[in-house]
Amino acid sequence: MTRRVVITGMGIVAPNAIGLDAYEEALRGGRSGIRHIPLLDELKFGCRVAGAPQGVDEVAERYFDEDELLAMNSSHRFGCVAAVDAWTDAGFERPSHEDEHVFWEAGAVIGTGIGGIDTIGERIVPMVDAGRVRRLGSTMVEQVMGSGVSARVSGLLALGNQVTANSSACSTGTEAIIEGALRIRSGLADRMLCGGTESASHYIWAGFDSMRVLCRNHNDEPEKASRPMSASAGGFIPGSGAAVIHLESLDSALDRGARIYAEVMGGALNCGGHRSGGSMTAPNPVSVRRVIGQAIADAGIEPEEVDLINGHLTATGADPNEVAAWADALGATPETFPVINSTKSMIGHGLGAAGALESVACILMLRGGFAHPSLNCEDVHPRIEAYAESIPHQVKEMPDLHTIIKSGFGFGDVNACVIYRRCSQ
Predict the structure, then answer these.
(1) Is the separation of the CB atoms in 47 and 238 below 8 Å?
(2) What is the DSSP string of 292-309?
(3) DSSP tally for the chain: helices H, then strands E
(4) C-alpha angle 113-393-7 in degrees, rounded to nearest 5
(5) Which of 172, 115, 146, 108 is nearest to 408 (CA)?
(6) Which of 168, 177, 202, 334 has the smallest C-beta neighbourhood within 10 Å, fewest atoms?
(7) Residue 1: what pLDDT?
(8) Which residues contact residue 221 at a Cβ distance below 8 angstroms, ignoring those fewer than 6 apart?
(9) CB of 413 closer than 8 Å to CB of 273
(10) Distance between CA atoms of 172 and 153, rounded to whole angstroms?
(11) Start-end of H helices in 267-370
């Protein structure tokens, strides 16, 4: 029998807030975390604003000892803070290093899009080129390997089930949640910590800036720079941070009397094969519609049951195509189209962390019965105009909000879609 999967804990390190209460307050208030980054001026970037969490080092100093901090770059710090918060939010005490108990029933899938490139750029390349290899220290490999964060979390929390990392570009965070849910469904684990992390690094953002896919039009007005679904959108804003969700079988959660935020009803993953317009940088529209339909089928719901779409919606030319794909896949007319919003309008595009950052937003919206505003799209794109009434520009109270669908469409033509619902036991 397939087991039901619920969410019993969350941790968030976002550009506009750290911690669940602060994040929900920021979402409700439409508070942007996008700010001017002086270093990008010095380096002559075209886009000089970004979403970067503030005050994480101070939080990390409270959470971890000096030796642990020395081995953590920003991706590790973001991801480990979020993971520890998700663990304790789920009702578990953080184990001590002296405690030999291993939680064999609990694992992790915590991914990243780019990984430890900040450590490579800031330390490894300069020191190697200067002939100072012996001065690198002993933690370089663990800081740059793709599974570094998930491996570190396993040590912090004594996880004994599968511990791994995934990397599927902008679909990474959403994919990690689906992978963890599938493992619990199948009975291979009782609990999984799932999500994504991404450094706030100019080394990560440089490649996108050189592609001219980042917005250059609002360097003097950072809060107006991220404009999903807008006619004046000029490209996405790079973001960063981490979010981790504690997934658990419903039976396990009920047995220990855990607080349940929501249920993961179903999800789907696919790739468009770089056909029908799909490529390394664009999704195959057929695969986008298919992954939405597959997620709905996997969840065992009808399309009209979807109350809110939290889209991928990056503020590029792909936004109108995405909205059209949602309408087609859901069989929705402008009159029946669900509420739709973009968390990226407040925090930018978190790359490998995006799907996890936005999933926490979805679960908070479900719990609180609201839809957060989608900022900076008062001038809705002409091709989206028919659906304008579905876009909230201020917080929209939705006491009957029941089902949210969340998507991620990544470079490489890879797609992920997950459905969250209030849990009825």
Answers:
(1) yes
(2) HHHHHHHHT--GGG--EE
(3) 16, 15
(4) 50
(5) 172
(6) 334
(7) 61
(8) none
(9) yes
(10) 17
(11) 285-299, 318-330, 344-347, 354-368
Nearest-angstrom CA–CA distance, 182 and 163: 14
Structure confidence by residue, pLDDT tens digits, 237-250: 999 999 999 999 99
- Point out the residues that are catalytic: 170, 312, 349
Residue 86 · residue 245 · CB < 8 Å = yes
- What's the rounded Cα separation, in Å, for the pair 14 and 215? 20
pTM score above 0.70: yes
pLDDT digits (tens, 9 = 90+) for 337-363: 999 999 999 999 999 999 999 999 999
Q: Among all chains, which residue has been given the structure tokens 């550009």? A: 15
Q: Do β-strands 403-410 and 106-111 pair in parallel, antiparallel, or remain unpaired?
A: unpaired
Contact present, 130 and 212 (Cβ < 8 Å)? no
- In which element (H, E) is residue 77 found? helix 74-89
**Token digits of residue 128:** 């190697």
Provide the token pair at 279: 């490529």
Give CA–CA dist 415/269, Å, rounded: 6
CB 60 within 8 A of CB 81: yes
Name the β-bridge partners of 421: 263, 403
What is the mean pLDDT of each successive set of 10 residues along the chain, which is 425 residues long? 93 98 98 98 98 98 96 97 98 95 98 93 95 94 95 98 98 98 98 98 97 97 98 98 98 98 98 96 96 98 98 97 98 98 98 98 98 98 98 98 97 98 87
- Give the Cα separation of 152 and 201 in Å (integer): 20
Could you give the CA distance from residue 24 to residue 397 in angstroms, rounded to a whole number?
13
Q: What's the pLDDT score for residue 62?
A: 97
Reading the block at residue 168, the tokens are 């599927």
CB neighbour list of residue 14: distance below 8 Å, 6 or more residues apart = 23, 26, 33, 51, 53, 241, 243, 347, 357
Burial class (CB in 10 A: 0-12, 13-18, 19+), 402: middle
Output the six-digit token pair for 100: 């030999």
